[in-house]
């Protein structure tokens, strides 16, 4: 009688989690650095589901804070810093990625990634000794709590309306003025002939004005 080989049951928190990079650095004066990407790798033969937690979720927006990774695949997790202020310079936050099997709820593994905001890449502070830096980060996060990012994603799924931009308003006024000008071929008009517009040009102005109206209504 052949003995069936069973996959050993994984103990909670024992599964190694592979994430790159292990540190996120945002620079206040570089808009492009306000968006960072974490890559979660799944080298295993089974699918994983993941959840992203954070010690300061109101400072960040995480795209797809929960999801799944197919076997021997990877997934990119986009993280945006949305509270770039001088009072946050040098403050360390932490993201925790928890993974589990699709059919289980317990976390099989976790990995923590530090995040910090600095004023400028050209003003990098002198690097402290690795031991001192590690001790300082551990002290800062000794009693820290991790919160789910999804609750803040729902509230931030749409940015706060700030009204239409000045360029949008000016372009709308130009289109309205174009529609009010006489059409090419009209005889009884006090407007100079060079300001008479063809029907096609007025159609274009009407189309652009309609698009601008839709943009303004959505803001």
Describe the protein's architecture and organization.
Helix 3 (166-180) packs antiparallel against helix 4. This protein has helices at residues 130-140, 150-155, 166-180, 199-218, and strands at residues 18-20, 23-27, 35-42, 48-54, 60-63, 66-69, 73-81, 92-101, 109-118, 147-148. The strands form 2 sheets. Strands 2, 4, 6, 8, 9 and 10 form a 6-stranded mixed β-sheet that branches. It has 219 residues and is an alpha+beta fold. It is elongated and about 85 Å long.
Could you write a compact summary of the structure shown?
24% of the residues lie in helices and 28% in strands. It is α+β, with helices and mostly antiparallel strands.
Roughly what fraction of the amino acids lie in strands?
25-35%
Tally of contiguous helical segments: 4
Helix content range? 10-25%
The radius of gyration over CA amounts to: 28 Å
Secondary-structure map:
Blueprint: E1 18-20, E2 23-27, E3 35-42, E4 48-54, E5 60-63, E6 66-69, E7 73-81, E8 92-101, E9 109-118, H1 130-140, E10 147-148, H2 150-155, H3 166-180, H4 199-218
Parallel strand pairs: 2-9
Antiparallel strand pairs: 1-3, 3-7, 4-6, 4-8, 4-10, 5-7, 8-9
Offer a few descriptive terms.
single chain; 219 residues; alpha+beta; six-stranded mixed β-sheet
